[in-house]
Every structure is written in C-alpha cells, then in structure tokens.
User: Which sequence fits this backbone?
C-alpha cells in the first residue's frame, strides 16, 4: 500500500528542486527523503526525476503525477490543520512559518516556556504566505509584503535586518579595510574577489542585492561554498577563513565573542523590513501576541 508521506515528499522535491531543500521544508533528514522518493518510484514503476549534481529535474511522468495529486494534497493539508484546531480546543495550537535560522535563534530557546502547542514550518516566503492564505498557517515572519485584494492576511512591520559583510577571524582584512576607508570601491571589489566566499541557497538574492547596491554591478563570481543555511556559514567561519554576506541579527553574538569579524556594513544600507503576516480571523490572538513579543524583545 502506498504511504501518503511518499506523496508529501515527492511534492516538496518537485517544488524545491533539491533533496536538501525538500528535507529542510519537511524538517526531515536527506536520507529519509531519498528513501521516500525511491519507495514511491518503485511503487508507481516509473522514474519521477532525473538526478543531476545540482537539481532534481522532474520527468514527464513526474510532472503528470504532480498535477494529478497537488490539489488533493493541498485540501488534505487544510483539512488536517482545521481538524487539529477543532479537536484541540483545550490545548490550542499555533501554526507558524519562517526561515529555519530565525526559528533556531529566536523561538527555539523559548519553547519550554510556552503554554500552548506550536507547529513550525520552514520554506520559501512565497510558499509560506500561500499556506497562510489557505488557513494552514496562522503567522509568517517575512521580509516580503504581498498586496492581495480580499485577503484575510495583514502585515505589521516590527523590525529591520541589515545585510553585512563578515569574515572569519583568521581572515586577513587589513588591505580590504584600507580600501573601505579610502572609499576605493574598484580596488575593494578586486581584493574581495581574491578571497574565499560562502553563501546559502536561500540567501543568494541578498548576496546579489548587496553587491549591486555597493558596486553598481552584479557579482561576477560564484561563491566557493553554497551551504543549506546561514547558521552553517557562521559555524564554518567561526575561527576560520573566508567572507560572507548575512543578516546582522544572525551573527551579533558571534561578533561580540570575536568568533567572526564585522568587516563592512556597506556604503549603502542593504536592509529588509521584517513583517508579522497573520490572519485577521485568528482565534487565538493572545497566543499570537506571545510569539510577537518574543520577536520584538529579541530584535530591538
């Protein structure tokens, strides 16, 4: 008999493009995701993806299967969330979505103090907002505000994140800081290009934006190491060598502990406004306020 989780896994691989991203979205291990996909392919008797070094490319059978099951899966997810809400009145559950790094830094340490159930989901901001509109999620932390007519979602700004240039504390930054001080962006860019660079698959947009706003051009190079998330980058740079562009609030503690160095905030501020996106028909507003207060207190 087919396992419904195989279809969920197939959906995430199809929409995210890689096993790594799918495992993050499912909050599962990558080997577990591979096992589910292999089991589904064996069950249907068809190859659903072409495996490449960078991406999982759906076959024609894979595309057909996705179109056939997607609406049913979405309806099932909505039904599951609504069913939970009606059967758990004595112990209310709040469903939230955000990037994994933000959850680990802000929410994870506070979970033992909560007096209600919490279900966290990670993924692309556009996908999380879709789940919010569909009633699957109650709150999303997002840097992107979507203006949709007749939407039950409201956006409230609560903080800003600034993209900054950091380096491992074993990185020689003397010449780079010299060019920053003299405002010689041509020599600064040339020197930066000679170094080791880290980035993450979900932060390449920030990387390109910082570069364009400060050097008036797109970055003409590919980072040496593209990792699953920013937390991994910071760990690699901890007492190491190399550069990265990351949101400031994710690396403040490491900078204070001298584990990494803040090199440059940019001649132009590369900032994102962070929003609480929540449903206006939410029943447990006091629980929502608890989560909001955690964010506002930690991101002052």
Assistant:
């Amino acid at each position: 008999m087919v396992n419904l989780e195989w279809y969920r896994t197939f959906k995430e691989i199809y929409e995210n493009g890689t096993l790594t991203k799918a495992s993050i979205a499912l909050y599962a291990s990558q080997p577990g995701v591979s096992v589910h996909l292999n089991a589904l392919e064996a069950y249907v008797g068809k190859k659903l993806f072409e495996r490449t070094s960078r991406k999982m490319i759906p076959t024609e059978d894979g595309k057909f299967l996705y179109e056939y099951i997607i609406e049913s899966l979405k309806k099932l997810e909505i039904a599951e969330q609504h069913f939970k809400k009606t059967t758990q009145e004595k112990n209310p559950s709040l469903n939230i979505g955000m990037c994994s790094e933000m959850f680990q830094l802000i929410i994870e340490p506070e979970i033992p103090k909560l007096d209600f159930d919490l279900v966290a989901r990670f993924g692309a901001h556009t996908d999380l907002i879709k789940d919010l509109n569909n009633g699957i999620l109650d709150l999303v932390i997002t840097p992107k505000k979507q203006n949709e007519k007749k939407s039950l979602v409201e956006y409230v700004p609560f903080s800003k994140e600034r993209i900054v240039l950091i380096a491992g504390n074993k990185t020689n930054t003397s010449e780079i800081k010299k060019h920053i001080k003299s405002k010689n962006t041509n020599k600064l860019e040339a020197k930066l290009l000679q170094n080791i660079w880290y980035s993450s698959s979900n932060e390449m947009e920030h990387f390109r934006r910082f570069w364009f706003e400060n050097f008036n051009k797109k970055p003409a190079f590919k980072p040496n190491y593209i990792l699953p998330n920013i937390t991994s980058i910071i760990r690699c740079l901890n007492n190491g060598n190399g550069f990265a562009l990351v949101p400031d609030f994710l690396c403040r503690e490491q900078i204070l502990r001298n584990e990494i160095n803040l090199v440059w905030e940019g001649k132009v501020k590369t900032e994102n406004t962070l929003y609480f996106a929540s449903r206006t028909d939410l029943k447990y507003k006091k629980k929502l306020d608890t989560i909001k207060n955690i964010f506002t207190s930690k991101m002052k």
